Every structure is written in C-alpha cells, then in structure tokens.
Amino acid sequence: MLKALKEGKRDRVSILRYALSALKNKEKDLGRELKDEEAYQVLRGLIKKGKEAVEQFRQGKRDDLAQKEEKEIEVLESFLPKALSDEELEAIIEETLRELGAQGPKDFGPVMKAVMSKVKGQAEGQRVSELVKKKLGSSLS
C-alpha cells in the first residue's frame, strides 16, 4: 500500500484499503489473527462480490463501472496464490478418481470433497465441479 501511495496510484490505494478493512473486520470477528487460507478466503469473497457487481453493471449498461470493478478484481487477484491451469486441475481430478475408485455420478460428493481439499483455494469450486462432472460422465447440473 505504501508503494501505491508513493507512486500516486489512488485507485490501487483505495482497493487495498478496502481489502485491509475487510481483513481487519474478519480478524475482529474471530478475535485472532487470520491464517493465510482465511485471508485468501476473505479476498475471494471480495472478488466474488466484484464479479457479481460487474454482471449487474453490464446488465444496467454501465460499462464504465464494470471496468472499474474489473480493475479492482485484478488487483485483489494479484494477492491470491496462482490459480491452477485446467491441465493441472484435471490431473488432480484424475488422481483423485483413481484414489477413490470413483466410477460414476454417485461418487460426485466424495470426489469434490477430496479435490477441493487438495486444491485449497487454487481453483474455484464451480470450475472444479464442472470438470469433475465431465470426468464422471455426469449429467448432474
């Protein structure tokens, strides 16, 4: 944040203050310092809200506000661990399917739980769900 202040990047400073405020509020709620994964979860929540706002702004024909939200999302994402590529994620899913002996749609729940524990915030649940369904040959929606 200090670097952004010194460089005069007001938008970035504003976004960082917003994120720090959300992190501090979560710490107060829990009564302790956040673990890394908890901090990432707070940031992911802010990103999710931002993506929903972008969608709403686009529906309301407010591209200027949508672009502003997208820039905020980009800044927040820079603080998260690198997301897994589809190939990396598919490899983890394949490995998990072999480990669990999963064969069909009925195994979806246990596979999702196992995969999500392995990727720990490096992939969105919706993306994981879609790939698991595809791998299981599932018609779940």
List keywords for this structure.
single chain; 141 residues; mainly alpha; Hypothetical Protein Yqey, Chain: A, domain1; Arc Repressor Mutant, subunit A; 2 domains; 7 helices; globular
How would you describe this protein?
Helix content is 74%, strand content 0%. It is an all-alpha fold and 141 residues long. The protein has two domains: 2-77, Uncharacterised protein YqeY/AIM41, N-terminal domain (Hypothetical Protein Yqey, Chain: A, domain1, Orthogonal Bundle); 86-136, Arc Repressor Mutant, subunit A (Orthogonal Bundle). The longest helix is centred in the middle third of the chain and has 24 residues, at 36-59. The model has no long low-confidence stretch (mean pLDDT 86).
Task: Give the SSE map.
Layout: H1 2-6, H2 10-30, H3 36-59, H4 63-77, H5 86-100, H6 108-119, H7 125-136
Helix pairs in contact: 2-3, 3-4, 5-6, 5-7, 6-7
Q: Can you tell me the CATH superfamily of the largest domain?
A: Uncharacterised protein YqeY/AIM41, N-terminal domain
Strand count, sense and barrel status of the largest sheet are: none
Topology pattern, helix = H, strand = E: HHHHHHH
| Overall 3D shape | globular
| DSSP summary: helix tally | 7
CATH architecture of the largest domain: Orthogonal Bundle
What's the short story on this structure?
The chain is 74% helix and 0% strand. It has 141 residues and is mostly helical.
